[in-house]
Amino acid sequence: MLRHLFRRRKATLRVLVEVGSFDKGGLEKVVLDSTLALHHAGVPTLIVSVGPLGILASAARAAGLQVAGLPSRGAARAYARLLRDFAPTLAVSHFSTFGYNLLARRGVPVVSFIHNVYAFMDAAQRARFAADDRTVAHYVAVSAKAAQYATARLGIDPARITVVPNGLDLEQTARRAAAARPVDRAALGIADGDCVFLNVASYNLHKGHYVMAAALRLLLSHRQDIRIVCIGNVVHPPHLDGLRAYLRAHGLAAHMLLPGYAEDVAGWFAMADAFLLPSFIEGWSIAMNEAMGFARPMILTDTGGAAEVIEDEDTGILIPNEYGEVTALDSTLLDRLAYATRDFRIAADLARAMERIAGDRPGWAAAGLRGRAKLQARYGMSAISARHRAVLDAVAAVAR
After folding, report:
1. Do residue 214 and residue 69 come from a single domain?
2. In terms of domains, do 117 and 193 share one?
3. Which of 229, 149, 210 has its CA nearest to residue 336?
4. Least C-beta-crowded within 10 Å: which of 138, 213, 230, 311?
């Protein structure tokens, strides 16, 4: 969308990156990797976290990045001091808008990343998004579906959105895969011959945990050798407590395991036979990229970038989502599916897909290898960061 700008002289970049928090999660991993790519290219960067700092903030500092956390009191004053001292020429925001007014006063253009299909926004959040849009110079959407939703449901001109998928550091992933020691199945009560599907996602019910439970209820009527292992961080403890209670009540707890957060997922992928992510919404899942990097076949619902990485079942099995076209989704429907629904139309599709992989593990292992090759060909971080840089240079050039 910005090709007409790329011929102009590039501006010297100094990039401030704003994020809501910087602890753990897919969005925060995107922030780390994309900022590291700018840093390695010689672009001065500063990450500003409005909320808590944690694991990924420590990793960023260890890699040589500048990271600042705002205090709970006097945050705006602290942000203004950072702007004065760092003097950015451009700001990148990752689902965080705290500094928009301060940036606008200094004439700093903002490139906002659209990380998801923003169907979870209620009326007040949508109004705020529309108001904030006046400050945004351009958007980067991580998938075509995320861009489609922003255009159709949030009113953003398609010419103001550039689609760039999330990438992955290929060399780092290869090192992690080579060094990985499989998590001990026996310690989890899993037999060597069981087929294990790994779900890597926050314990956020938008990720389809009850869809997985519904599929297991169908499978356990005639086989006992399929397990799902869900690793992730807790978002809202009552939701996780309710999920655990549901699994116990329906005899699923031994087959759908919730061991908690894992800082390094490499050993979990090494233990698993396949990757499973039946989300209701996604932008472009970093866990999906990691599954490809660790050469695991995938089962994904048709949301986010899933249809771009599973083509004619080359890297796994794509199943329908629960609601049809992405533009049909809104916060009311999403919440009903995630929090209130227990029986799903797609549960049978998911159960059949899991049985197909369990029934031909060598054949689907080859699909995992194709996934790794596709990641290397299309979604390496160096290539993706070059596309990010082109957008930033174009926006900065217009702003001069």
Report:
1. no
2. no
3. 210
4. 311
Whole-structure pTM value? 0.90
Angle made by CA atoms 371, 375, 376, in degrees to the nearest 5:
120
The answer on 221 and 122 residing in a single domain is: no
- Domain co-membership, 229 together with 258: yes
Beta strand segments in the chain, E: 15-19, 45-49, 67-69, 90-94, 110-114, 136-141, 161-163, 195-200, 226-231, 256-260, 274-277, 298-301, 316-319
Total domain count, the chain: 2
309 vs 56: CA distance, rounded Å: 26
- Give a yes or no: residue 185 inside a domain: yes
Task: Please check whether residues 349 and 374 belong to one and the same domain.
Answer: yes
Q: Are 196 and 185 in contact (CB under 8 A)?
A: yes
Asked if the structure places residue 174 within a domain, the reply is no
**Tens-digit pLDDT string for the chain (400 aa):** 444 333 333 448 999 999 998 887 777 888 888 999 899 999 999 999 998 888 889 999 999 999 999 998 999 999 999 999 999 999 999 989 999 999 999 999 999 999 999 999 999 999 999 999 999 999 999 999 999 999 999 999 999 999 999 999 999 999 999 999 999 999 999 999 999 999 999 999 999 999 999 999 999 999 999 999 999 999 999 999 999 999 999 999 999 999 999 989 999 999 999 999 999 999 999 999 999 999 999 999 999 999 999 999 999 999 999 999 999 999 999 999 999 999 999 999 999 999 999 999 999 999 999 999 999 999 999 999 999 999 999 999 887 6
- What the block records as the tokens of 341 is 């629904």
Q: Does residue 70 contact residue 53 with C-beta atoms inside 8 Å?
A: no
Q: Is residue 21 packed enough to be buried (19+ CB in 10 Å), middle (13-18) or exposed (0-12)?
A: buried
Residue type for position 59: A
Residue type for position 190:
I
- Parent domain of 48: 3-167+381-399
| 172 within a domain of the structure (yes/no) | no
Which residue's entry shows tokens 């009326």? Answer: 123
What is the distance between the alpha carbons of residues 134 and 291, in angstroms, rounded to a whole number?
38
What secondary structure, in 3-state letters, does 313-379 show? CCCEEEECCCCCCHHHCCHHHHHHHHHHCCCCCCHHHHHHHHHHHHHCHHHHHHHHHHHHHHHHHHC
The amino acid sitting at 356 is: R
